[in-house]
Structures are given as C-alpha cells and as structure tokens.
Give the backbone structure.
Amino acid sequence: MGKKINSIDKLEVGDYVVHRDSGIGVYMGITTIEKNGLLKDYILIKYKGDDKLYLPVDKVDKLYKYSSKDGAKPVIHKLNSVEWEKTKIRVKAKVRDMADKLLRLYAEREKKSGYAFSPDSEMMIEFENDFPYELTKDQITAIQQIKMDMEKPVPMDRLLCGDVGFGKTEVAFVAAFKAIMDSKQVLFLCPTTILSNQHYENAKERFKNFPVSILIFFTLLSDILTTTLPLFFNIKYMFFITFSISLKYLATIYAFLGSIALSCCIFSFIS
C-alpha cells in the first residue's frame, strides 16, 4: 500500500490503486452513472476478470496508490476475494511482528547508558551567535531538540531530514561544536567527494573565529579499514576533516563516499 489519495488529480488511467476493503485494482478513469434520476461521477476500478468497482468521487480518500520497492506489478484478484483477505492478515501479522521487535529494541536501548554532554558553555553560545544568518523556525527547533538529546545520559536516537537548502549543515555544525566542547570525536558523513569539499570549505568559514583547526584527507578505502569496517555501503573513498580546539578540545569529522544523508545527526554517535 502506498500514499493515501486525497485528490483525483493524483491518479492516471492505468495506475494501480488499493481499496482497503476490495483490494488492489486498476484505475480506469471517471465514469458518469445515472442513479435515481440523478447523474453522479464514479471512480472506475477494474479487478480480475470482469469485476469492477464504482466508487463515488467524493470517496477518493478511501484509495491508496500502490507502490513497491522494486516497482513490480501487483497480482490483481477478484473483487473482495479471499486472497485479499489473506493478504491483509499476512500484512497485519508482519506489522505486529515488526512492532514487537521495535518495542524490544527500544526497551533494550532504554537500559543502555550513554554520555551526557555538558550544558552550553559561553563559547558554545558565542559560536551560535556567530552564525551570520537568521535561523529558521525549523532550524531553531532542531538545534534545541538535538542539544537536549545530547545532554541526556542515554544513547541518542534522532534522524534529521530536510531538502537541499533547508539549513541542515548549520544544525550539524552546532552539534559538532557542542561535542568539541566536551573533547569528543564527531563522525560526519557525505555522499559524494564534491559535497565533502563543499562541507570542508563551509566548515573552515564557519569555524574561522574559533580556535579550531580543520584538515581534509582523501584516500582509497580499500587501503584502510577493510578488515575493521563492515562494508554496508558501496564505498570507494574515505575523507575526513579534523577539528581541534587548542590541545584540549578534539573532534574528528569523517565523510565516507556512498553513505546517505547522515551528517545532521551522526555527531552524537561517537562519544
């Protein structure tokens, strides 16, 4: 099952749709039917054989657009078939199993103790105030919540998502600087070498008014860490930036080509 459909404009003839009660069918367009002397528009959905479902257009929110990971075509059954009921039972069982696993996982995480970062220092406040632009409401919220997570004595569990240009980098730099204040190392991931260079240049500019040194380094991943790092991604290069503040405050930002959009939350993982 995919996204819920709120407007008929989201559908094209031939799209696979899912009706919660009737199963997966093919959207065939809008048809007008006279009923009790009145003309009314209906969504026509075709099922296996000659089975058809006429759904009033004002009930379009009962439909979901079908989607699959590999784009495979679904099996179309008869309208209100036993097979669809069996499919729903299997899906419900899988969802319950997944929920049970998540509950056990998070119960175990709650038992683990993590590093509680120190409250904001004067230098931390200076660093945030040194940002030359006005933060958006979402940036302020994200920074506040991430710092609150970092100050808790439990493992951090947060993923920050945002489109290009929405200010994720500043949120990441604030989290990195907070870790630097506690002499911790920071892991920074980038998906491409170009983006790695961009982050490196941005980091030099952002940290220039503070006693932080930055180093960028590229090397073939095959030359290092091949026996110590499980290759979960198709990684070919490794790059890292090293931040250090005087001799006391140290942090390292690494970026691995092939990893996906983790730079905004990874800072709290290395402690």
Q: What stands out?
A: The helical segments are 82-111, 122-129, 137-150, 168-181, 193-206. The first strand starts at residue 16 and ends at 19. The two ends are 40 Å apart (CA to CA).
